[in-house]
Design brief:
Strand content: under 5%
GO biological process, one term: chitin catabolic process
Number of helices: 10
Largest sheet: 2 strands, antiparallel
GO molecular function: chitinase activity
Oligomer: single chain
Mean pLDDT: 97
Distance between the termini: 12 Å
Radius of gyration: 17 Å
Strand order of the largest sheet: 1-2
Helix content: 40-55%
Shape: globular
Low-confidence stretches: none
Pfam families: Glyco_hydro_19
Order of helices and strands: HHHEHHHEHHHH
Length: 202
């Protein structure tokens, strides 16, 4: 059944966005709903709710694909093989950031903050787009939505997919955060997901 957009937006305006559903948020949410209905309309609505909650959290409520906040100095420290922190430099090398400048080039982007050269290569291969050569394309809404949905369904990020936490026997809003990043902010994101799910059920 198609999503009733009017009811959905009326609900989330109040439950998630404090009554302020700005144009950019509407545009971003509309694109995400379109992408879901185009490729995943037969899937579990809980999956959509949790993916939207993840995008909400990772984009700082903008609902637009975003680049990780930070400048050259920060990205060099965090992700570059020339990081002044030996542990960070070793981590960079282990994740495929082998050239000076890779820390900036392969910083977090999209709805799920795709990071590291190895991940850009691997996920680019999975969706058939050369993200290693063109990491900025992870910010294109259509591509970012594919990474969000296909990645969370397929368990591309941590090995765990949405089906592990939402199935015929289980609804685990909290531990679903493990799909992306351990359980950091798990309770907060679970709350967002429940709100999205309620709006999708009306």
């Amino acid at each position: 059944m198609p999503i009733d957009r009017k009811i959905f937006f009326d609900q989330v305006r109040v439950s998630l966005f404090a009554g302020k559903l700005l144009a950019g948020r509407v545009e971003g949410l509309s694109h995400l709903l379109d992408a879901w209905e185009t490729r995943h309309s037969g899937e579990d609505t809980r999956w959509l709710a949790y993916a939207l909650a993840t995008a909400c959290h990772e984009t700082g409520f903008t609902m637009q694909p975003v680049s990780e906040q930070g400048g050259v100095r920060y990205f060099t420290y965090m992700y570059d093989p020339q990081s002044p922190n030996p542990k960070r430099a070793a981590l960079a090398l282990a994740n495929g950031n082998v050239h000076p400048g890779d820390g900036v080039k392969y910083c977090g982007r999209g709805y799920v903050q795709l990071t590291w050269a190895n991940n850009y290569r691997r996920i680019g291969d999975l969706i058939g787009i050369d993200l290693l050569a063109h990491p900025e394309r992870a910010l294109e809404p259509e591509i970012a939505a594919r990474i969000l949905y296909e990645g969370m369904i397929g368990g591309w990020f941590s090995g765990a997919g949405l089906g592990r936490y939402f199935n015929a026997k289980t609804t685990d809003w909290k531990n679903a955060r493990r799909i992306i990043n351990g359980v950091d902010c798990a309770d907060k994101i679970a709350g967002y997901a429940r709100a999205f799910y309620a709006a999708l059920q009306v």
